Amino acid sequence: MVSKKNAPHFGHENPHTHSQSVEAAVTGPSKATAETILASKGHDVIAVRPTDSIHRVTEVMKEHGIGSVVVKDQNGHMVGILTERDIVRGFADEPDNTFDETAGDLMTTKVVTASPDTPLLELLHRMTEGRFRHIPVLDGDHIAGMISIGDVVKFRLRELEYETLKLKQMIVG
């Protein structure tokens, strides 16, 4: 075993230069925000009215292939969110009457939201802690978009693939 005292010395405490270090090649925590994700997926938001029947809401969700809708009042202001989970709970509570209920009856009114500058990792944290899969992005009073947990995971996987490619390029030269 070579002791540190007898180890070869190349004039640096750290034998790796900064440009050769793994830390320099990996970007670290994602700097992406809600707006970064919306810029790649789009800002479209599907909305229903509080008076729309659950039957109508499920048709809208099926038509658009989505798992949640924003509920807006007659002035276009968000008053809630209605998700597949809310509808399933409705069926568990009132199996015979759920289709006759309205979006206003089953929607979640205390909606956790994000702003366009909310960091990606904060989005993940809010969704994980709150145990929900969709988060509306508000820019002031305007709904700028809707982000799902799938959108966040997909974006982060693309970032990790890019980081892996950069590391491979660094190793190969």
UniProtKB/TrEMBL annotation:
Keyword Manganese: no
Keywords, ordered alphabetically: CBS domain
Domain CBS intervals: 39-101, 107-163
Transmembrane parts of this sequence: none
Region called Disordered, residue ranges: 1-25
The protein, known as: CBS domain-containing protein
